[in-house]
Amino acid sequence: MSVLIKGGRVVTAADDYVADIFIEGERISLIGESLDVAADKVIDATGKYVLPGAVDPHTHLEMPWRGKTTVDDFYHGHVAAAFGGTTTHIDFCIQAKGQTFGEALATWHGKREGKALIDNGFHIIVTDLSENGGTLEELATLPEEHGVSSYKLFMSYNDSLRVSDEDLFRVMQVAAKTGACVMVHAENGDVIEVLMADAIAAGNTAPVYHALTRPPELEGEATNRAIQLAHVAGAPLYVVHVSCAESLAPIVIAREKGWDVWGETCTQYFFVDTSFLERLENFEAANYVYTPPPRPKHNQEILWNAVRTNALQAISTDHCAYTLEQKALGKDDFRQIPNGAVGMENRLQLIHHFGVREGRITLNRMVELLSTSPAKLFGMYPKKGTIVVGGDADIVVFDPEKHATISAKTHHSAADINIFEGTEVQGSPEIVLLRGNVIVEGGELHAKPGSGQFVHRARFRSELRPAALATA
Ligand SMILES: [Zn+2]
User: Fold this and answer.
1) Separation of CA 186 and ligand 1 centre (Å)
2) How far is the CA of 315 from the centre of ligand 1 (A)?
């Protein structure tokens, strides 16, 4: 199978030019002006952007949470992602208490098998380093043996996922040796427990207390603590879902010092603010309960500025889909509202419209934030994350003129909630290719379940990565 994409405006993190792209099999084999080659399929991309497939470094498909499971499994999540122009994501594999890391990874591989439509890798979430759980020795083998080169740890959720500073630090020491990256969910878990107990004791059970018991200072404090610990251990650190000025500040300071510290924010933090948690009609506020919570509105321009100036390097989604029925479990107690919201389908549309069209970031920077940087940081570049000869032909033919209205009625997630409901955007993916195969065209899905591949990722440390594309 060969594909010729003709006359599109090819946009990568670095370049912006009109060219033809020739794909043989799964990879790009030729980029040039007016290519005179025969192809099985020809796509006229005149007037369209030709972008590298988007890479989402932070998602939760079929994730168990307090006896519930997120409603997007690898099939539904991948359909939503494909329509949104995302061709690769990295999901979080959670080590259950008493499990080895190998057992946890086997569980998560089982979730994707026969369902995956796009490519994905895994980060490992470390929850149990006790005698019955995983060992540091096993953790050290994951980058090489399992292609899992990032260790994620929680500093909050004391009842389930949180690890002690001691365990956090020991994992950082392992990462320093193995070239893996440490990712932290940075919030002060102990203080949140106190504030939540106080709120409930005072009869404050409404959704807005989810935000009021997790104030920005607690994210700032934990972010700074993680940065200092990672520096002592000599490990690279990636701070997930930075939501506010308080956690951005220590990242900026560390980066100015040249430390190996990186960070992402997520789409929703540009659009949803704390006031959404006061929408009490039909318990709508619960739809915006995710963690870290929506922040006061002034943080939105601060975050736009952070992604523009490279204080933050990526925009992910933290896609974690729940239904209205699941959200209603917290009707009488905000602590019981499942934390999470959708995002995989709309990230590119939203960042294109409100970032690029409204002049906050350039088109090149959009590609860098949504595709190139996540691929580089997590050991998938240049196979993923750019358009280059020898790279995977993961390509989005994007129509910058096409209008769309975001809605749960028309999205492809299994959730019946979309936190961007009613938002109008100009610009949408038209054709999406994964490794040379058209997976979305003309509003139709063309991919078969099971066709998505697992991505065995290289290490975070650049000196430990292969320098060039391996040619098959
Ligand atoms: Zn998450």
Assistant:
1) 11
2) 13
